[in-house]
UniProtKB/TrEMBL annotation:
InterPro entries: DNA-bd_dom_put_sf, MerR-type_HTH_dom, MerR_fam. Gene3D superfamilies: 1.10.1660.10. SMART domains: HTH_MERR (SM00422). The lineage of its organism: Bacteria, Bacillati, Bacillota, Bacilli, Bacillales. It comes from the Bacteria. Residues 8-76 form the HTH merR-type domain. Pfam families: MerR_1. The keyword Cytoplasm does not apply. This is MerR family transcriptional regulator. SUPFAM superfamilies: Putative DNA-binding domain. GO terms for molecular function: DNA binding; DNA-binding transcription factor activity. Keywords: DNA-binding, Repressor, Transcription, Transcription regulation.
């Protein structure tokens, strides 16, 4: 796992890094745009990738996009990523290609 994907940052630090309020960050979680991990005590933990995603979300909202539109875009991007990984796996299985 890359350091960027390790969920180690608390919500206060994410707020400082992104300039978003804690309430905004929680709202994006409620809208299922971001998925922090939770500790046993319930503390949210974010990764650097989550921070980057939150900045992208905030910019899209500022540009006038609705959270539902952003969610649809994220779903399409995720679907494309899965499809690309499947194609890479098939190419590797058939031709021994590793990219």
């Amino acid at each position: 796992m890359s350091y960027k994907d390790r969920k180690v940052i608390n919500i206060g630090m994410v707020s400082e890094l992104t300039g978003l309020s804690v309430r905004q960050i929680r709202y994006y979680e409620e809208r299922k745009l971001i998925f922090p991990n939770r500790t046993e005590g319930g503390t949210r933990k974010y990764s650097f990738s989550d921070v980057e995603k939150l900045i992208d979300i905030a910019n899209q909202i500022e540009d006038g996009m609705q959270s539902s539109e952003i969610k649809k875009m994220q779903k399409r991007k995720s679907d494309r990523k899965v499809r690309d990984e499947m194609i890479r796996g098939q190419l590797n299985a058939v031709f021994g290609i590793r990219k």
